[in-house]
TrEMBL record:
Its main location: membrane. It comes from Stackebrandtia nassauensis (strain DSM 44728 / CIP 108903 / NRRL B-16338 / NBRC 102104 / LLR-40K-21). This is Major facilitator superfamily MFS_1. Keywords: Membrane, Transmembrane, Transmembrane helix, Transport. It is a multi-pass membrane protein. The chain crosses the membrane at residues 12-36, 48-68, 80-102, 108-124, 136-159, 165-183, 195-216, 222-243, 264-286, 298-322, 334-356, 362-387, 408-427, 433-455. GO terms for cellular component: plasma membrane. The keyword Transmembrane helix applies. Residues 10-460 form the Major facilitator superfamily (MFS) profile domain. It comes from the Bacteria. Pfam families: MFS_1. One of its GO terms (molecular function) is transmembrane transporter activity.
Length: 463
C-alpha cells in the first residue's frame, strides 16, 4: 500500500466511512419501494417479489458476524474492498436483463454489504483521535439507519419515470463510487492483529439466522402449515444454542460471547432487539397506512414515490438527533440517551394510535420516529464500546447489528401478522393499525425500562 494511502488524512477518511455506510444501507433498502414493480416486470407474485427485500436482510445478517471477525484482523482493508466488489457485481446483476432468480442473487450480494457498517466503525476507532472517532462511529450508526429514508424516495422516483432497471441502476452507480472511495481512503489495520474465522461456527450461525428471518418473513407459513413452522422454529433455537455452546468452547470464536454477556453489552443488545422491533413496526405501519386507498375508508392513497417522501422527516430528524446526541453524550450517560430516544419513539406510536386523520399527523409521527431512532442509533455504539477492547470493535458491533436485523424482521412480521388478522375484504380494518400501534408502545416501554435499568447499574458505585 502506498505511503500516500497510509497517511490518508482524517478529513477525507471521515466522509469516506460515512458515505460507504450510507451507500450499503440505502442500496439494501432499494427492495422496499420496488416490490410491486418487480412483480409486474418479472410476472411473479407479490410474495415472491417480497424476497428481493427479505433476501438482503438474510444475507446481511449471515455475513455481518463473519465480516466483523475478519475486520478484527490485519486483512480488514482487503475484506472491505472484496465485500464492496461483491456488492458491485450484485448491483450489476440487478440491472442486467436476466431472469428473476438472478435478480435474487444480485440482491443477496447487495445485502452482504450491510456487514461493512461495523468495519467502518472499527476503522474510525483505530485511525481517528478518540473524541472524533467516537463522533464518527455515532454518525456511521445513524446513517446506517436513515439510509432507507434516502434510498426509498430516490428509487421510487426512478422506477416511476425510468422503470425498474433505472432504479437498480442507481444502486450500481453508488456502489461503484463507494468501492473507488474505499480503495482511495481506507487505511490498513494496525500491525499485530490476527483473525481466524470459525467456518463451522459460521455455518451453524448462518443456518439458525436463516431460519429465524425466514420464519419472520413467511407469515403465511404459520397459518397454512403450523406444524412445519413450529418444527423450523425449534430447529432454529437448537442451532443457535449449539452455536452459543461452541463459541464458548472455541479459542477463536466468531463472536466473543463472553464479552456479549457483560451486563452493559447484554443490556444494550436487549434494548436493540426490542427497540428495533418497535421502530421498524412503526415505519411499516406509517408507510403502509399512507398508501392505503381512500376506498378502504381510511388512508391517503399515496403513490410509491409520494409515500417515499413521507420518509423525509424520518431521515432529516434522524440526522439532527444523531448530531445532537454527539454533543450531549459527555453530560448525559449513554443508557439514559437510549431510554429518552425509546420514549420519543413511543410518543410516535401514541400519536399514530390516536391521531392519523390527516397527512400532517403522519409526518409528525414519522418525525418523532426519526428523531428517536437517530438518538438511539448514535448512543448505542458508545454504550457497547465503552467496555469493548479496540481490537474487538468490529466483532462487537457486528453482533449488535445482527440483533438489530432480527429485531427489524420481527417488527415487520408482527405488523404484517396483526394487520392480516384484522383484514377485511381487501384491506386491514383501521382498528388493526391501532392494535399494532399499542403493541409498539409496549415494546418501546420495555426498551425504555431496560435502558434505565442499565443506567442505574452503571451509576451504582463500585465497592
Amino acid at each position: 500500500m502506498s505511503a500516500a494511502l497510509t497517511r490518508s488524512p482524517a478529513r477525507l477518511l471521515v466522509p469516506a466511512l460515512v458515505f460507504i455506510a450510507l451507500v450499503v444501507a440505502a442500496v439494501a433498502s432499494l427492495g422496499m419501494p420496488l416490490i410491486t414493480s418487480v412483480a409486474t416486470t418479472f410476472h411473479v407474485s407479490l410474495d415472491s417479489a417480497q424476497w428481493t427485500l427479505t433476501i438482503t436482510l438474510l444475507s446481511g445478517a449471515v455475513a455481518t458476524p463473519v465480516l466483523g471477525r475478519l475486520g478484527t484482523g490485519r486483512h480488514r482493508r482487503a475484506t472491505i474492498l472484496a465485500t464492496l466488489a461483491i456488492v458491485v457485481v450484485g448491483s450489476a446483476l440487478t440491472v442486467l436483463p436476466l431472469p428473476f432468480a438472478w435478480l435474487l442473487v444480485g440482491r443477496a450480494a447487495q445485502g452482504i454489504g450491510l456487514g461493512l457498517t461495523a468495519l467502518m466503525m472499527g476503522v474510525a476507532r483505530d485511525h481517528l483521535p478518540e473524541k472524533r472517532g467516537a463522533a464518527t462511529i455515532a454518525l456511521i450508526s445513524v446513517v446506517s439507519i436513515i439510509g432507507a429514508g434516502v434510498g426509498y424516495p430516490l428509487a421510487a422516483l426512478l422506477a416511476e419515470f425510468g422503470g425498474l432497471r433505472a432504479a437498480y441502476g442507481l444502486g450500481l452507480l453508488v456502489t461503484a463510487i463507494a468501492l473507488l472511495t474505499a480503495w482511495r481512503s481506507i487505511p490498513a489495520a494496525p500491525e499485530g492483529r490476527f483473525a481466524h474465522v470459525n467456518v463451522a461456527g459460521a455455518l451453524v450461525l448462518a443456518g439458525g439466522l436463516f431460519l429465524v428471518l425466514f420464519l419472520a418473513g413467511e407469515r403465511s407459513l404459520w397459518g397454512r402449515h403450523l406444524a412445519v413452522a413450529v418444527s423450523l422454529a425449534v430447529a432454529a433455537v437448537l442451532l443457535l444454542c449449539l452455536w452459543t455452546a461452541s463459541e464458548l468452547r472455541s479459542t477463536t470464536p466468531l463472536v466473543d460471547v463472553r464479552a456479549v454477556r457483560h451486563p452493559a453489552v447484554a443490556g444494550a443488545n436487549i434494548a436493540m432487539f426490542v427497540g428495533g422491533s418497535g421502530m421498524y413496526l412503526l415505519l411499516t405501519l406509517i408507510t403502509r397506512y399512507a398508501q392505503t386507498p381512500h376506498s378502504a375508508g381510511y388512508g391517503f392513497g399515496l403513490s410509491t414515490f409520494v409515500a417515499g417522501l413521507v420518509l423525509i422527516p424520518f431521515s432529516v430528524l434522524g440526522f439532527v438527533a444523531g448530531k445532537l446526541t454527539q454533543r450531549v453524550r459527555e453530560r448525559i450517560d449513554g443508557p439514559l440517551l437510549l431510554a429518552g430516544s425509546a420514549a420519543i419513539v413511543g410518543g410516535g406510536f401514541v400519536l399514530f394510535a390516536v391521531a392519523r386523520s390527516n397527512l400532517a399527523e403522519l409526518l409528525v409521527a414519522m418525525g418523532l420516529l426519526g428523531f428517536g431512532v437517530g438518538g438511539f442509533s448514535a448512543a448505542m455504539p458508545g454504550v457497547i464500546l465503552a467496555v469493548t477492547p479496540k481490537s474487538e470493535t468490529s466483532s462487537a458491533m457486528s453482533f449488535n447489528y445482527v440483533v438489530r436485523s432480527v429485531g427489524y424482521s420481527l417488527g415487520s412480521a408482527i405488523g404484517g401478522l396483526v394487520l392480516a388478522v384484522g383484514t377485511g375484504r381487501l384491506f386491514p380494518n383501521e382498528a388493526a393499525y391501532t392494535t399494532a400501534a399499542l403493541l409498539g408502545v409496549a415494546a418501546m416501554a420495555i426498551t425504555t425500562m431496560t435502558s434505565l435499568a442499565l443506567a442505574r447499574r452503571r451509576s451504582r458505585p463500585r465497592i
